[in-house]
Amino acid sequence: MRNLTILEQMRWSIYKAGGPWIEFEHIPLHDDKTFQLLQSGDTLGIFQLESVGMQQVLRDIRPTHFLDIVAVNALYRPGPMEFIPIYARRKAGKEHVAMPHPILAPILQETFGVIVYQEQIIQIASVLAGFTMGQADLLRRAVSKKNRQILEEQRAVFVNGALKQGYEQSVAQDVYELIVRFADYGFPKSHAVAYSMISYQMAYLKAHFPHSFYAALLSNATGNIDKIMQLVQEAKDKRIPFYPPSLKNSTKYFTVENQGIRYSLSGIKGVPHTFIDKVNALQQTNPEAFNNLFDLAVALSAQHFKPKVMESLIYAGALDYLEKDRAVLIKTVDAAGKHAELLRPTEDIDIATATAYSFGKPKYLEAVAMSQKEKLMHERESLGFYISAHPVTEERQNWQDINCTCYELKQTRDGTYVKMVGMIDDVKKIRTKKGEQMAFVQLQDEYGTVSITLFPQVFQLVQDLLIEDELLFIEGVLERRFGKPQIKVKHAKTMKK
Q1: Residue 182: pLDDT band by 50, 70, 90 thresholds?
Q2: Three-state secondary structure of the chain
Q3: Which of the residues 33, 41, 248, 369 has an alpha carbon 20 to 30 A from that of 419?
Q4: What is the reported pLDDT for 350?
Q5: Prediction pTM value
């Protein structure tokens, strides 16, 4: 239900951004762009297909037909997972498709001779053993409920039925053994098809309307910083620009704007939904109030214009459109709040008139400009990560021999000697069997995060540098583990050189 809601949100986002109104029932099921996305495992955010394991399965099977997605959804679970390599090899023509009996070819052809669905059990029992549909369904129920007693009771009935149909006893017994084995993982095709339709529709929208795809998923990930970071980084990898939150333009949702995505107000820590509702209402009824911090304070009233909320917004960059330094805005918040308290416009006097009655509008207070480092630090505190810039971007310019970022790592071959800079995001120290210390470190830049390994010899030299948020230069050998790049560090030093 949640994913159906997200699909609906994507449809409206596409339409509001000037795109077509998507009729889901008319989405083509043989869309090349969609299958290219699936074959590459680019399925983050896609229902049922976004786990790392599932992404690898899609890269192995390389689906070319909707029924491949159905089979993947049915196979990717404990038990049938062992048949995924067989399915992949047979689909690729690397292994002969062996049928238990030629008569079963029409039933098992679409799954390359592998029993995948409960519905195939019904068809096999009907064709091979002469079961009526009612009898076959009783067998299917026993399979679905893993009822071993009924399965054993039905063995003789199945074999005798096959003998009456003219099939050899060995064939009947072998096929029934497959059915019993299938009972460990049986999955209804009807269920898999319904799931896969949602999967395919989401994949289609991701392939053709990525801005709206990410905007809808980000809106639903509010409060989950890890998920938001994951989605934002992937979108940035695809060169989709992100615009910081804006009190003047943002809503409670992530929205598509100027071929990019506008950050939502809901994603800012410490900003209540009642405040956002009030702001969105003002955007419609009194947009001029957003052009000045003092008018904004009056329009919002003391009920909503609270120092802590406003500071969170300022630190997140939501008032940058006023073209005032964030330090100036922070220092002026209290003065704006007092200004609003003095005026308190009634229903009979609008804000403009009330302001005209005052002894002149107050001015912004002076303050020392906020440094870029402090600005980014507060931005991360308010949003959970950097959105307008990243400390690594600026620092990278001070180094001449850097040859990689987290973005390039994805296209770089194993064994390449890489040199890069990043910010330490997490440090996990362990001891080897010999009792020596080493560490696994998450190194972050503006394009993503990579795991780096510091073995004891290197660790001893840099252990004092391994501090969260410290900028680090590393060089080492790239390798992949479970499909993800990681670096075995040979040398490291801080950005202070």
Answers
A1: confident
A2: CHHHHHHHHHHHHHHHCCCCCCCHHHCCCCCHHHHHHHHCCCCCCCCCCCCHHHHHHHHHHCCCCHHHHHHHHHHCCCCHHHHHHHHHHHHCCCCCCCCCCHHHHHHHHHHCCCCCEHHHHHHHHHHHHCCCHHHHHHHHHHHHCCCHHHHHHHHHHHHHHHHHCCCCHHHHHHHHHHHHHHCCCCECHHHHHHHHHHHHHHHHHHHHCHHHHHHHHHHHCCCCHHHHHHHHHHHHHCCCCEECCCCCCCCCCCEEECCEEECCCCCCCCCCHHHHHHHHHHHHHCHHHHHCHHHHHHHHHHHHCCHHHHHHHHHCCCCHHHCCCHHHHHHHHHHHHHHHHHHCCCCCCCHHHHHHHCCCCCCCCCCCCCCHHHHHHHHHHHHCCCCCCCHHHHHHCCCCCCCCCHHHHCCCCCCCEEEEEEEEEEEEEEECCCCCEEEEEEEEECCEEEEEEECHHHHHHHHHHCCCCCEEEEEEEEEEECCEEEEEEEEEEECCC
A3: 41
A4: 53
A5: 0.78
